[in-house]
Amino acid sequence: MNGSSGTPVSATPGHSAVYPGSFDPLTRGHLDVIERAAQIFDRVTVAVVVNPQKREPLFTLDERETMIRSSIAHLDNVEVDHFRGLLADYVRRRHATVIVKGLRVVSDFENEMSTALMNRSLSAVDTVFLPSDPRWSFVSSTLVKEVYNLGADVADYVPPAVLALMRSRRPSTVPPHDRSSA
Fold first, then answer.
1. Tell me, what's the pLDDT at 177?
2. pLDDT value at position 5?
3. 16, 28, 30, 64: which one is catalytic?
4. Is there a catalytic annotation at residue 145?
């Protein structure tokens, strides 16, 4: 983004963002949001949510953090962490100035808006919504896992480090999808 003088616009010094999610697995859509947030904010923390209410994740917390670290190694101002409990408490502990959320479709906004307002009420930290790149607007972690477990190739939708671990986990009873027979 450029200012009126044509020079790059940067975040106010000291602005740090938290990008929360389960990242089970990290997708190219997530990575796009991380890379764009890293251009806007001085520091970005990718915060893996440990949510005991969710069903059993495909990947352990350590695996998710490792996949994310591998995928963001080129970004000097991005780190990976995890948290349990309220996001509002976590952003206060991190002294974050903003929460970043990616939006793929209108229903994402509808779901995220009330959460953003609650987080602001609890922490005085605003949420910045970054619209998805249209290439990734249909990609979700849930959908990636579902089609992968049915044998589809998901290489276009996840970073290489994620794909490698997913391939090591492919159920032996599901043959890979053959696009030539479709």
1. 55
2. 35
3. 30
4. no
State which fold the 16-166 domain adopts. Answer: Rossmann fold (3.40.50)
Is 100 buried (19+), middle (13-18) or exposed (0-12) by CB count in 10 A? buried
Q: Is 30 a catalytic residue?
A: yes
> Which among 114, 158, 153 has a CA at the least distance from the CA of 140?
158
Per domain, the residue ranges of the chain are 16-166
List, for the chain, all residue ranges whose pLDDT scores fall below the cut of 70.
Answer: 1-13, 52, 54, 171-182
- 112 token code pair: 């995220």
- Residue 141 is among the residues annotated as catalytic for this protein: yes
pLDDT of residue 20: 97
The per-residue pLDDT for 171 is 60
101 is catalytic: no
Q: What is the 3-state secondary structure (H, E, C) of 37-79?
A: HHHHCCEEEEEEEECCCCCCCCCCHHHHHHHHHHHCCCCCCEE
Q: Which of 54, 93, 167, 169 is catalytic?
A: 54
Q: Round to whole Å and give the CA distance between 18 and 97.
A: 8
What is the rounded CA–CA span in Å between residue 36 and residue 104? Answer: 15
Catalytic residue among 64, 104, 123, 132: 104
- Contact by Cβ (8 Å): 130, 102: yes
* pTM metric for this prediction: 0.84
Q: What is the pLDDT of residue 107?
A: 76
